[in-house]
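Re-run requested by the PI after the first attempt was lost when the workstation crashed. Everything re-entered from the original request form. Ligand of interest: S-adenosyl-L-homocysteine.
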Amino acid sequence: MPTYHIWTVGCQMNISDSERLEAALQGVGYSPVDRAEDADFVVLNSCSVRESAEQRINGKLGSLAHLKETKPDTQIVLWGCMVGPDNQSIFKDKLPMVDHFVSPSAVDEVIARVPNPIYSFDEPVLPIADIKHPPVSVHVPIIYGCNMSCSYCVIPLRRGRERSRPLAEIVEECRRVVERGAKEITLLGQIVDAYGHDLPGRPDLADLVEAVHETPGLVRLRFLTSHPAWMTQKLIDTIARLPKCQPEINLPIQAGHNDILKIMKRGYTVERYKDLVDRIRAAIPNVSMTTDIIVGHPGETDEHFQATLDLINAVRFGKVHIAAYSARPGTTAATMELDEQYAVPYWKKQLRRVELEKAQTAVITELNQQFLGETVEVLVEEQAKGKWRGRNGQNRLVYFEDDRDWTGRVAQVRITRTGPWSLSGELVGRERATSDEQQVGHVQVPTEFVIPLEVI
Ligand code: SAH
């Protein structure tokens, strides 16, 4: 049987693209191997959001050059955000070990490069729905591309304009993947809350969430990543009303000072962002707000950075993805950084990153302590180092121990230890009566994936 190997770096969208490709490759009769050396078909799903990601991929390409010399029949595909309409011709000369360059998310174009497929592949791509044993938590892309033009970001140049998938197609895919065993769905988009504006009838993310929420057997529903300028009150109210929607929202702010937000062309102010957070918190009790921040964007002064630090301490996010700014070719910030008066030196970026991380660690340590002694609902994903690992509604990692198989089930866990990165605790429920259906929060969870209480 012919074999494939996929190597993925980058965001959830890339992971999701790779999952879909995996299903499609199996569909044409290929089977997976752990090492590129053993594969007939090797795919590198690349990321270019920061320079460090590209450096990792270049390292991998170096080792594949050696492979190509010793096994010239191996077909090598460079896929993902490193490949855009702007750079394919440059790559052809620079990367002779690569046989094919394919744009991000284009699963069917990768499949078209597969040598000697055993089965033909001519269906529309709904592959995640066709994975035989999907993971507990799956990502479903709903909108590709990005229409924004944030100063620092290369993604729109690589992923192109926004394209929403038809609502009915997404709903059908969710139904099928849950039927095969998935319990949690995360709807994905670069700007997920821009969903639908390009579709006939202009459905929006709230309409889609409402429709996917009906999926029989679905336990949890999330979406990623929101943009503050697109988040509507209708969406907030919908999440608040629908019980399977989880209390966690990723809302990148990027900087805590209006001058920098303006340079970044983000389209909102700090005041508007804070007002949005207040409205979300008022509507969704216990919601965990998470965010992304870039430090050291060209033009960022100590005063601007201090405003970001103050924001972190004031808003108290459940998670902050902090990145030191890195220049991306073709972006306006990259041009701005060439001017010495705006460029933030490397060491200063790193100092700011570390300082922000320290502040956020203090915030999250304190926030997590609130779970001590509380019983939380954990959707269990897998076993790791002898412990069961899952997440609560706010997406905090939770560990507990038990002999039985909890994969894909909802456990009630009383938290006994907390730290900045995870919570751990013990199973509760031994003393509780059994019933046909166990009430999990305000979600009715069908008995098939709740371990009957009498065995606990
Ligand atoms: N669509 C999202 C961002 C997706 S990219 C949004 O609207 O914010 C994921 C994260 O990578 C961004 O939130 C940003 O914090 C970071 N990032 C993007 N470009 C970057 C760059 N040039 N340097 C450092 N971090 C960057």
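Saved to the shared folder this time. The chain has three domains: 3-124, 131-367, 375-429.
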